[in-house]
Write a structure and sequence with these properties.
alpha+beta, Ubiquitin-like (UB roll), Creatine Kinase, Chain A, domain 2, 6-stranded mixed sheet, 17 strands, binds adenosine-5'-diphosphate, binds magnesium ion
């Protein structure tokens, strides 16, 4: 049976059609206005909206509703409430009020809050984000919400994102007005996140404690074949995976997620799914749903999806390219060069703002993607380096050089690049020019931020990008609004901005070691690890920036800093404890069993041969015993460090201790254990190896 995609698309979403059908026309218009302007819902119409939503949800088989939110844990949270309300006579009525729609009060005391909620006021509240449609998942009506403390402090990943969208809307509108775009009333950023993931067989997965507890392999010798044949990328999709993808697509489509492309990625067992881009908050909600469904549907197909940034050593990890742009309610993409000189000048101004923002806020962009998992990817020649730079491509770069140097642009038209004046030529953009090694690449009409990890919420990097760009637009608008000679000021502004910030532009190979040296000479930041990056978040100028743009206040920033540092420590602590457990209970006992078998063989050989020193059995036994002792010592060393870590109370000191002491002790344990894997009889090895995990489907 074929599926009519147009029929199933959005069938589980309370979208505009449902609203129009279920609401009186004036209520519908009022709600539309709320959605378009991104304003809170008027309580007067809330009851009507809630009623329509409930009726629609019941007709779809829903029994409960939930305020669906994104706490700082990075996964979505939901608490289900039934629609049922007991009435007299032992009966029930199904109700859902406007109050229940607008605001929820989850007892959320066990979500990470970094000290924001005093214990005497442990409640939080959730508030509907009407710009993101409600949907039905597993017979639950899910209402996308933001999550705050009673004092109004953001406790989630969504609130700062919504605030940052407001900031960029305000500032971009100021700029657009200066260019005479009176018809534009709102500006939104758009995002298309490309989601990478691995699929492994559920049976193999369930035998590996490291995958179960940490999502990545903490042990594992390389198998004879890796990704060197380059035969997986865009290769034929295996039938089992194909069946999973079909299921996944259909369920995503039902939820209104426009899953569009799917293909095999570079590494064996690695895949990618990309949706058509949408408004940033919706793209963020949809990406959370996508991650959830990838995991859930994989299980249905007896597989497990690994969203971790680096599930396998020696094999490419997974990222989430964040394609980002800005567009107007009139449908114009502001990062698309236009046809007229004026449109091009406007494009160049936005471009200059972004270049300046990236250069001035390298620290924030870097830390917005910092996590224990992502530390394995960045700078490891499979993902962009940890150094932030901007790729523009040769053609656009030549245009900018011509502006900076006031020389004729060396393109086909040989025109002097005088901004604003009618001589500005049509900008030639080669969108095929793709430099895969750049962290922040212009790809024709959007920027592709390639540093985010596969596992993280995209709200983090997007609220940072939105905020830093909004702040630059604010400065530009300040400079331009007061000027008497708009064109001259505009020209100088673009020229000087590019001149001062061109060090951030790099069109070469980001994987090359020489780039690291070059970047250092240019004074660019190179923050290797999460604890190197995160402290920049609370630098005074960054606190001032986020406060100025009304995205986060000082307390919220302090709390987020603490939460993310602690998260890093907790993740690696669990990894360390898992390694100790696996080494002591599985790896060393298996190797000892093998050593025993070998020594028994050697003993029996002794009666036959005189010189058994050089036999396979003796030599192997020696090596196995040596690695067992190494492993034992390394395990003890790691245990000692893990105990030290438990005694450190200060969250910053703990994170630095993890970075400096725990990680190297983990490496120290992995080495002898991986050597043992290559020595010990496969039949005795306690868990499936890389070969099975990577090629087992
Ligand atoms: P790649 O070649 O990088 O793999 P894909 O086609 O897989 O490119 O992904 C490109 C992503 O960029 C898609 O999700 C697409 O919808 C998104 N995209 C395209 N235009 C825009 C835009 N204006 N704003 C945000 N994202 C966009
Ligand atoms: Mg991409």
């Amino acid at each position: 049976m074929t599926t009519d995609i147009t029929k199933i698309f959005g069938s589980k979403v309370f979208n505009e059609d449902c609203m129009r059908e279920g609401l009186a026309s004036d209520t519908y218009r009022e709600l539309q206005k709320t959605i378009q302007e991104g304003k809170p819902l008027n309580p007067k119409i809330a009851n009507a909206v809630a009623h329509a939503m409930k009726e629609w949800a019941l007709s779809q088989g829903a029994t409960h509703y939930t305020h669906w939110f994104q706490p700082m844990t990075g996964v979505t949270a939901e608490k289900h409430d039934g629609f049922i309300n007991p009435i007299e006579g032992g009966k029930v009525r199904l109700t859902f009020s406007g109050k229940e729609l607008i605001k929820g009060e989850p007892d959320a005391s066990s979500f990470p809050n970094g000290g924001l909620r005093a214990t005497f006021e442990a409640r939080g509240y959730t508030a509907w984000d009407p710009t993101s449609y409600a949907f039905i998942k597993d017979n639950i009506l899910c209402i996308p919400t933001a999550f705050c403390s009673y004092t109004g402090h953001a406790l989630d990943k969504k609130t700062p994102l919504l605030r940052s969208m407001e900031a960029i809307n305000t500032q971009a509108l100021r700029i657009l007005k200066l260019f005479g775009n009176e018809e534009v009333t709102s500006v939104k950023t758009t995002v298309g996140p490309e989601q990478e993931y691995f699929l492994v067989d559920k049976e193999y997965y369930s035998k590996r404690k490291d995958l179960i507890y940490t999502g990545r392999t903490l042990f594992g010798a390389p198998c004879p074949k890796g990704q060197e044949m380059e035969d997986h990328y865009f290769g034929t999709i295996k039938s089992r995976v194909q069946a999973f993808m079909k299921d996944l697509n259909e369920q995503l489509w039902e939820l209104g997620v426009s899953a569009k492309t799917e293909h095999n990625e570079v590494a064996p067992a690695q895949h990618e799914l990309a949706p058509v881009f949408s408004t940033t908050n919706i793209a963020t909600d949809h990406n959370q749903l996508t991650m959830e469904l990838i995991q859930r549907i994989a299980k249905k197909h007896d597989m497990v999806a690994l969203l971790h940034e680096k599930p396998f050593e020696g094999i490419n990890g997974s990222g989430k390219h964040n394609n980002w742009s800005i567009s107007t309610n009139t449908g114009k993409n502001l990062l698309e060069p236009g046809d007229t000189p004026y449109e091009n000048a406007q494009f160049l101004l936005f471009l200059a703002a972004i270049i300046k923002a990236v250069d001035e806020h390298q620290d924030l962009l870097r830390l917005s993607v910092a996590s224990a998992g992502n530390d394995h990817r960045l700078g490891a020649n499979e993902a962009p380096p940890a150094i932030i730079s901007v790729f523009l491509g040769d053609e656009l770069n030549a245009v900018l050089e011509a502006i900076i140097n006031e020389t004729p642009y060396d393109g086909a038209e040989h025109k002097l690049m005088k901004i604003g004046a009618s001589v500005l030529p049509k900008l030639p953009l080669d969108t095929t020019d793709r430099n895969r090694t750049s962290p922040f690449a212009f790809t024709g009409n959007k920027f592709e931020f390639r540093m985010p990890g596969s596992n993280s919420s995209i709200s983090g990097c997007n609220f940072v990008i939105n905020t830093v760009v909004a702040d630059e637009l604010r400065q530009f608008a300040d400079a331009l609004e007061g000027t008497l000679d708009f064109e001259a000021t505009l020209h100088d502004l673009i020229k000087n901005t590019l001149k001062h910030h061109k060090r951030i532009i790099f069109n070469g190979n980001g994987y090359d070691d020489s780039w690291i040296e070059e970047a250092e000479k240019r004074g660019l930041l190179n923050l290797h690890t999460t604890p190197d990056a995160l402290p920049y978040f609370i630098h005074e100028e960054n606190i001032e920036l986020f406060e100025r743009m009304h995205v986060l206040d000082r307390e919220e920033m302090m709390s987020r800093y603490e939460i993310t540092m602690e998260e890093y420590t907790k993740i690696i602590n669990i990894e360390a404890l898992t390694m100790i457990n696996m080494a002591k209970k599985e790896i060393l006992p298996a190797a000892t069993k093998y050593a025993k078998q070998l020594s028994e063989t050697i003993l029996s050989q002794k009666s036959v041969w005189e010189d058994i020193e050089t036999t396979y059995e003796s030599q192997t036994l020696k090596e196995v015993s040596k690695q067992i002792q190494e492993g034992y010592r390394a395990c003890q060393a790691l245990e000692e460090k893990a105990e030290c870590l438990h005694r450190i109370e200060d969250f910053e000191k703990a994170a630095f201790f993890v970075r400096d002491e725990i990680l190297s002790a983990m490496d120290g344990l992995r080495k002898p254990c991986d050597l043992l894997e290559n020595l010990v009889d496969e039949a005795l090895w306690p868990f499936p190896t890389y070969g099975k995990l990577l090629f087992g489907i």
